[in-house]
Amino acid sequence: MSLTFALLAVRRTLARGVWLGAATLAVLVVATQRRGGTLLESALDAEATTRVGAWTAFALSVWPWLAWRAASLIPMWRESELEFVAGVPASRARLVLSSWFGVWLAMCASVLLAAGAAEATAPRSSEVLARVGEIALPHNIVLGGAEPVVWRSELPERAAAERLRLHLEFVPLSNYADVEWSVARAGRTTRALVRVSSHSELELPFPDGSGEAEFRLSRAAGEGLVMCGARPLELLARGKSSRWCSIVLAAHAALAGAVCGALALGLGAWMRASLAFGLAAAAQVALAFAEPEWARQIAPWSALPAAFEACGRGLVPQAPGLAECAASFAWTAAGLALASAGIRRWRRPA
Amino acid sequence: MADSSDNTRVSTEPLAVEVHGLRQSYERGLFRRSIEVLHGIDLALRAGEFVGLVGPNGSGKSTLMRVLAAVDEPSAGSARVFGRAPDHAQARRATGFCPEDSPFPRELSAAQVLDVLGSLYGLARAQRRERAAELLDLVGLSASAKRPLASYSRGMLRRFGLAQALLHQPKLLLLDEPTAGLDALGFEVFERLLESERARGTTAIVSSHLLSDLQRRCERLVVLVEGRIEAQGTALELVGDLGERARFELSVSGLAPRELELVQREIERLGGQSHGVQPAQFNLFELYRRGRARAAP
Q1: Between B186 and which of A112, B96, B181, B182 could a Cys-Cys bridge form, CB atoms 3.0 to 4.6 Å apart?
Q2: CB within 8 Å: A8 and B70
Q3: Distance between CA atoms of B277 and B261, rounded to whole angstroms?
């Protein structure tokens, strides 16, 4: 890899307009921060909303811009710098790898800027819960009448998790419904009661013991349909600091940046930057709604939206796992291979 | 080296450049119509030879250069640079290419572009810095080394093009229209560089659409017209083929302008025609040099 060639890619991806725009955005995000909560919102929720708001501003404005710049790199060589790159005794793979590294460095710089802006807007370092795992729920948990809904589920040993969180949706036939949730395991039962009037969450301490646990959901008062939506049962642990939200999010974003940079270079080697960008955006939308589930999971940066969502709810997201790293590596390799093949094409008669 | 039966010595070293039946075509237009730019070129250059490639615009000079510089792949035929395909890493390392345009990152300074190129040619950091400083000094761009190329004039870009082609001390120089847009200082730099490269034993192909540009600098000229080699030889051989239509320029010094009239009369007495007397380009260089010397503190 050539570091000087990589620095050229950094310079081109983070062109003056891009970094000025990103810096301005960071200043705006910090200048317009909300301080503390409101009557209807706890300070912790306000902090989470502000933090994820800063990240979202970067994700929607700066990152697509960087991807566009990355997709323009190879077309730029082809259109005006062919003799500069095609005649040097460096392999195509070396040129592509160096450029990708430069693009990735530029993306990491923007991620650090986003993290800085997000943490500057959320100066309080408070204790938060971290999401350490999840358990899929049975389908059709709907509490319609007086009959309770009971299901059993295998739970891990109490190791990292300290609490369980269940998400409830409400279809109102009256103003509210009082719902009780209980978990029984190894002869001990814990309960929680909540008044549901829209979307609600129920939390219980993680039950001691081993093996299966019995979950029971029943209505204590009120009317209306109460159901568990698409969200799984979350396993939560106490996190060290709310700043970990941005740290873990930055790790996800750095992985996503690696994939995005490689795919942008790869598609840009075969088509105009605008077409490459449009195609990638369309594929992203298609994959976001793809069925079956595994198609969504292997999609590029598939864990990033979930990490954003967890941050928005005041939780530290799960750190990138082995599967996410492996999928990111595979997508990056595919993008780089595509780019190398594209460079091969320009040297033949048009 | 090996002795042949008739006692002539035959070199076993590969030729610097060997081109056989080279064809190059491009597809253009809505219906991808194929246009052949080179129609079966055969050419060979010995190591250390300076060859001038002359031809009108669109004759295929740049296309031939781009094939030899491994920028384009030929549609048919073969090209070898020191016995290897042009895109072989060793052939690329042996070749320095000064393209007609300036296809370098314009946002970078001359020193930065040379640094990037040096790293891609595998030169160590200290070595490429030293070489870049030396070359930029040689082409008179030391003072502008840190300015972005976007702010350079056309002549400065041509001088930079020459410098980057020499960065890795190539054995084969491909100079595509190197004098286009050069000012007097640029010509001087160009002449000096060519002389030092000739002394180093470099092989060179220099293209131009002006015969006068090349005849002094190259021992052999190749005339390319519409993608075919029309003629090749020394300048005098080529012009000699024109018979009575041939014209010659006589370079004279040490005489006053009015004494040149006597020379003209003598030419007419011998049956030739004199087409006028005009000062040589050299005088312009002298005027510039004198001006610079006066301006210097």
Answers
A1: B182
A2: no
A3: 8
Q: Which of B30, B62, B72, B93 is the best substitution to test chain A (most A C-beta atoms within 10 A)?
A: B72
Determine the distance in angstroms separating the CA of B4 from the nearest CA of chain A, rounded to an integer. 37
- Domain extent, residue B273, equals 250-295
Alpha carbon distances (Å) from A340 to A86, A325, B70: 12, 22, 17
Q: Which CATH architecture has domain A129-239?
A: Sandwich (2.60)
Q: What is the pLDDT of residues B178-225, one digit of tens each?
A: 888 787 778 888 888 888 989 998 999 998 877 777 777 888 889 888
| Token duo for residue A19 | 């970094």
Residues whose CB falls within 8 Å of the CB of residue A87, separated by 6 or more in sequence, listed in order: B69, B70, B71, B92, B95, B97
Domain boundaries, chain A: 3-127+242-346, 129-239
Residue B59 DSSP class: S
Nearest chain B Cα distance for residue A11, angstroms: 9
Taking residues A211-220, what's their average pLDDT? 82
Q: How many of the other CB atoms lie within 10 Å of CB of B178?
A: 27
Q: Is A163 exposed, middle or buried (0-12, 13-18, 19+ CB in 10 A)?
A: middle
* Closest residue, chain A, to B128 (C-alpha): A4
Q: Does residue B5 form part of some domain?
A: no
**One domain for residues B237 and B269:** no
How does pLDDT run across A235-254, given as a tens digit for each residue?
888 877 778 888 999 999 99
Determine, for residues B97 and A82 on separate chains, whether the beta-carbon distance falls below 8 Å: no
